Each structure stands twice: as structure tokens, then as C-alpha cells.
Amino acid sequence: MAFFQITTELAPIAKVGGLGDVVYALSKALLREGKPVKVLLPYYSFLNKKRLTPLKEVYKTKLRLSDKSFFEATFFSTYFEDIPLILVHSDDPQKAFSRDSIYGQPDDPYRFLLFLFLVHHYFTNVEKPTLIHLHDWPTAFLAFLYKSHLTTHSPDDPKIILNIHNALHQGRCSRKFFDLLGFDSELLLANPCLQDPDTPTLINLLKSGLCYADALVAVSPTYAKEIQTEEFGYSLAPTFCKYSQKLFGITNGIDLSYFDPAKDHALKKPFPSSFEIKSVLSAKEENKRQLQKTLHFQESNNSPLFAVISRIDEQKGPRLIAHAIDYLMQKDAQFFLLGKPTDPSLESLFYSLEEKHKHTKRFRFHPHFDEDLARLTYASADFILLPSHFEPCGLTQMIGMRYYTIPIARKTGGFADTIIDIDDPHAKEVDKTGILFSSKNYSDLEHALERALALFHNQKRKEDILFHHSLQDFSWKNSLKAYLKIYGK
Ligand code: ADP
Known about the structure:
It is a single chain. This protein is of the alpha/beta class. About 40% of the residues lie in helices and about 20% in strands. The strands form 3 sheets. It has a 9-stranded mixed beta sheet. Strands 14-13-12-15-16-17 form a 6-stranded parallel beta sheet, with helices on both faces. α3 crosses α6, α10 (about 275-295) packs across α13 and α11 (about 320-330) runs parallel beside α12 (about 345-355). The two termini are about 15 Å apart. The model has no long low-confidence stretch (mean pLDDT about 95). Bound molecules: adenosine-5'-diphosphate.
């Protein structure tokens, strides 16, 4: 029996966002339950080989592309920490896995199709899977490779689960990528399960997985409902509705050892391992001073410190973030934006805001991915701002609360499932953890920021909310149970 996670990301060695965290944490949680899990990942050239030991070649083969060129594929087995990995190496002419970043190349669909093609080859020739767990559009097409009429079916075919971490990215791609891998793309395009709903000349890779996987898991119950509407599921909303019987919503957890504020090496001062308000406040204050020093802010605990730690793209609400910065600069607050923009116009937007507010020494923009700085920021900030247009699950709010940082979020997707508003009249007092706002209007955002400022200055209330954070269980325990139920089916 073997459970395989097929993924393009694995935190922290190949991470862009939450998908990498989820595959890492879910695999660890499965291993703790004694489940035979293995992760299959492209052997990216940037992987730090020192962290992958021992690295052993398990299988090598020569394959042919339709242009008659040959290339060699090699499969290595290794471990990352205690997670067993199979790394898929290819020396194809396009050097599919030897790029600087995981995503963002025009031939991404080809690169990941090649990965799947090789994964399928591995399963056929080396190790037979019992269960295959796919993640998002880059791996969705493997469900088609197994379940379509192209292959013969047998009762011991693996069960296939597809996780939807983000339905915006669907892998719409040209047939030429399939031609190169030797598929009959004419035939593929004629299949309604593969044809993109907006552009019938394109193949939609996510859609192929929706049709052919045995079960679909959206990463929060609210997101499972949202993607069945056009606003969040886009042109695939009817497909999500069609398969709603096999669509589940399971909220992600976080790995509590990976994000452990009592042992985090990136912090100036660790938090206590059990809640004690004085020690929590003093750790927050000392970490905050360290971050303020790093950012050349005034070192003071009297100004509230707001932070954003995020990929910066349209999904994450950049106009609302920009508005919050302008608004809070009039309020004697400090603001740190740690985020890598996906588009140069967003980078210019935040650089121009940095210039505009330079004289205040209260706003800094750091357009990079920096894990240690992110951890120090979680530990230092009073508030973490999350004005996303949509958020399938979101991990930053949970990591934030684990480091005693109060989330201010738009009530969408996983934010709606994991944050309870401090003023919710229907909620139990001990469940109240953050500030939610509904619309994308500046006035709603400003109202939420005003509530945050008032909370910052209400010491007793703030301490209560931090206590509520200590009661939250963001472990994988409950989510794992839900996954095992689906695996069992
Ligand atoms: P998404 O997957 O949409 O990017 P999530 O909230 O699910 O968002 O996960 C984001 C993960 O990436 C979190 O672990 C967060 O701490 C991390 N992260 C985002 N931006 C940065 C950054 N600039 N530097 C370091 N870590 C980051």
C-alpha cells in the first residue's frame, strides 16, 4: 500500500505559498498516523541537495518526444526530514525543471505535463500506487491519464483525490504542449472534460482533474461552496456544481512544530510554551523592538504595528492594502509589507507609497520572499492585515494567531471558517479571535482598522483576545481525520 502526494511545491525546500506548507504538513501528519506516504516532486535544479539525504538513484529510463528527440529521466529516492521523497529528474531539451522559479514561465503547462508523464511512467514501471493525491492544476491531468478511455481500467486502479488550493489558476493551455509529449491533441480537444469553457481551442488542465478524480477537496468548507459560483469558480463554476457530490471542503491545518513560537530560531525572544499573559506580552514586545530596529522604525510599543506577509497579486487585495497604508500613516501606526509582487506595476505601487511616506519612518516595503523575516514579523506585529478578494483557506491568519497576532481579514473562504469576529454577537466569547469585514469598500476597511486601533488601546480586551488565540487548535488533527475518511472511501 502506498499513498502518493504529487506536487510542484514542498515547504520549505520548494515553496511559493500555502500549497507547499500543506503538502509538508499533511505528509507529516499522515506519517505520524503510520500511513505509508511518499511525495513526488520535480527535481528542481535549485533544490538544496544538502537537505536531501541519502539521495539514491532508483530508476533510469530513456524516453522519446514526438519530435524524435530522446531524453533521459532519472528517479531518485531521498528524505526531507522524515518525509520520503521521489525526485523526478529530466534532461529534456527544454530543461523543464532547471529554472530559477517554480512558476511563471510561458511553458509551465508543458513542464508540469512532462512531470506527470514521468510520474505515470514511474507508477507503471516501478511502484504501484494505492492512492494518488493531486494538488491544483499542475498535477490535475494525472487523473485523466489514469481514468480516461486512454488506459484500460482494473479494479485495483488507484483512488485519485484532487485538492483545489486555488481555482483561479486553471492551467489553460495550447494543444502544442500535448503534441510534443505524443498525445493526439485533436482527440483531447474533442473531449468536453478537457475543453476550456471560455476558449474551446485550449485545454483546461484543472477541469480534466475535476472530471476524472474520484474525490475533490477544496481547502475550506466556505471555499467549497464559493467555487460553485461564478465569482469564485469562474467559468468552471458549472463543472464544480456538476461534481458537487464528490466535492468536499476541509480546512487546512498548520504544522505546529514547523510554526512553533516557543522554539522558533528566527525570533529574538521565544513565546512561552503555555499561555501566561505577561510572558506573551514581553515576548511580543521584544520581538517587535527587534523588527522595528531592522526596519529603522521608532522602537516603541506605543504604536500599533500592522503587517502583511503575502504573495502580492490581485487575489490578495493590493488596492485595499495600499489604502490601509495611507490610512494608517495618518494614525501614528507602523506598517510592514513583506511581499513579493507578481507584477511590476504592483511593485511600483508599493515603492511609490514607500517614497510618499518615507519621512514618517513608519512604513517599509520588502518585496522578497524571506522565511526568517516572515517569522519575526508574525512574532512582532500586533495585527496582520488580510484584505483578500478571495482566500481558499489562508494559512497566514492561523500562523499569525499562533504567534499572538490579531488578524484583520475580509470575510471570505477560509478566513470566514477560521476567524471569529471580536464583536460577533452570536459567537461564544472564547472563540473571538480577530476582526472581519465583508465588502471591498474602503469605508468598510477603514471601519475595521478603526476597530483594530481601538482594540490596541484597550489593554484588557486585547489580552482576552490573545488568550483566545492560545485556545485555538490549528493542528492537522481534525483535518487529517476528514482526509482519512475520504482516503478510506
Ligand atoms: P497563498 O498560498 O495564497 O500564497 P497562504 O496564506 O495559504 O497563501 O500561504 C502563504 C504562505 O507563504 C505562508 O506560510 C506565509 O507565511 C508564506 N509567505 C507569503 N509571503 C511570504 C514572504 N514574502 N516571505 C516569507 N513567507 C511568505
